[in-house]
Amino acid sequence: MEQFVPSGFVQKLQYVIPRLIPKSRREHGEVVESTWNNLVGLNLNWSATALSVFKHRAFKELAQIKHFQLTFYGWLMSELETQPHRDLLSDIDRQEYQHWACYQHYLPSPPTAGGCGGDLVTACRIIINALMDFNKRAKVQNFKESGCTELPSFNRSSYENIICRLQEMVFDLERVWAKAPGKNLSPEGGHFLLDVFWDRQAKVELPKLSEQLEHQIELQLFIRILLALPPGVLFRTRKDGLKTTLECEEFFHFTNGELRNGYSKELVLPFDVTLHFFRGLLNASVSCEEPSGAIAGILSDSKAHCPLLMLSATCWWTRLEPVLSTQWKLFSDASLPRELQKMVDSQCWANRLLLGKLESPPLCPPWVLGAFVYFTLRRGNDLNMLQTAAREICAENEVFQVSVLYLSLMDLVSSLLQPKETSDITVTLKACTDVVMVLEEQNKSWLNIFLMANKGHKSHQILFSMMSDLEVKLLPVAFYSFIPALDPKLLSSVIKHPDFLFVAITLYSAIVKLFLDGENIISASDQCDLQNSKQPDPLELLTIGRQFLLRIIPRCSGQIISQRNKLQAVCKDIDPELKASLDHQLQLCIGDGLYSESTLL
């Protein structure tokens, strides 16, 4: 009989009959007599007929065959297609049906029957996969219908209903884990939610550009689901003797890899992601004997291993602080945990500093203090005060000032990537120039921030770990967007740095490589705005860089001599004109008796 019955028809009956006939969900047993006898008769209506077919032994045997089964995933995809405003079931009836399907039918059913084998984690993973696949399908359909590339709203689907079922299951998991700390640690490690995303990415096999687009869509969809779930699920508890501790390594890894490269915008993570992390931290800390200590441990780890989260917190702190303070008061009558109180104090210190009140800063890493000052100025559109603020910081705090320069550079890169108003780029260019001027006045070292080779240096390691891979690639663009245009007096001071010529040529070579590799130096979100913005054209930028180097090479004779080997290594791939200029300058030095070996190139 199998070959005469379409599998889709059998699966559709398995979906429709329990949905429309509640009696089919409750009754057990089966009909064994002829099916035809149960399909005719004056007293039968459509529901009785459908129920008779559904309960018949032949149909049940057919439904147990693998390719006739309606699996949990298949049921979810069918349910997601349902449009609530056209559904025959009321909201209450639909919720009751979904609860039955999830908890009474598919959760206890064995995997061989298309179920979850009683495993809530498996059920959650199947739901997330179904939601993401449905969303991608809806996005494609939405694009075809309207030409819109934004994520669809899903108002005409049961997306919200299924999200609610997922929330309920995750809440059940949290209750289980609260009773048995450590049970949420799988033997092979990993995180049951984040693993869904990584498993999906491992299966993607597309050309490079298509793979990047696919990855970006998947990340957006996954974050949308993640933010709908209880925030405490980002953290895991572990019982260490009599002490309960929190762990968040997987989310740190997810942030450093996926969010840093695919979801950060204008230097930081979006507000909703940052808030979700901190709300989850407060929620999870309540399960520890010392919540304040648990929070301090996670935030300390974040500063060292996932600084992008802390940088985002400094950016959004004026919005985060009221929410977190209110949430903490629900848990405890005590004051804010000490690490959060440090954030409050740092924001207050930055506010007072910008009012001209120079006080001892809180005990926070210098880059955190620099971020509070920078973002406070940016919120108030007062970046023109950056030079004054940088001067008022104690002169010996070099890391603070270099951190402010880093943020200025990243803001410049962001302005170049996503053109808004022309004035935005002008302001960020001036901010970079102002900070460089202060650093030069105080004889601070700052050029090495542009070199990836210095990523391992402790003073730059944290800064580099907050940059996306694209931002790192565009550091040379930032350099040549403002250095050649410096005031002549300031430029003369900058050129005197022993490594300046080496840094400048290294960054020029990086731009040439980007161009020759076919990568867009500037990928404007709206190409129509490119002509009206002050974004540098790639060829124009290369021309500016080459002319700038030709102009300053004669002024760097000492550097050419002292760094002959380094320059020789970096000059391999630059254009012949620059090679000739460097060689000529070395010959002049030899002629003046400053150097006696053979030519540079």
List keywords for this structure.
28 helices, 2 strands, elongated, mainly alpha, disordered C terminus, two-stranded antiparallel ribbon, 601 residues, single chain, 63% helix
Q: Overview of this structure, please?
A:
By secondary structure, this protein is mainly alpha-helical. Helices cover 63% and strands 2% of the residues. The protein contains 28 helices and 2 strands. It has helices at 7-20, 23-26, 46-55, 57-63, 72-81, 91-106, 120-146, 159-179, 194-202, 208-227, 249-262, 271-285, 291-305, 307-331, 338-354, 366-379, 386-392, 398-417, 422-441, 458-466, 469-473, 475-482, 488-495, 500-516, 538-552, 557-562, 564-570, 576-591, and strands spanning 236-240, 243-247. Strands 1-2 form a two-stranded antiparallel sheet. A hairpin with a 2-residue loop joins strand 1 (236-240) and strand 2 (243-247). Helix 18 (398-417) packs across helix 22. The longest helix is centred in the N-terminal third of the chain and has 27 residues, at 120-146. It is elongated. The N and C termini lie far apart (82 Å). Mean pLDDT is 81; it is low at 521-534 and 595-601.
Write a brief caption for the model.
With 601 residues, the chain is an all-alpha fold. It has 28 helices and two strands.
Helix content: 55-70%
As a whole number of angstroms, the C-alpha radius of gyration is 31 Å
| Strand residues, percent | under 5%
- Which stretches are poorly predicted, pLDDT < 50 over at least 5 residues? 521-534, 595-601
* Helical segment count: 28
Kindly name the structural category.
Answer: mainly alpha
Cα distance spanning the termini? 82 Å
The biggest beta sheet reads:
2 strands, antiparallel
Instruction: Using the alpha-carbon principal axes, give the shape.
Output: elongated
Mean pLDDT: 81
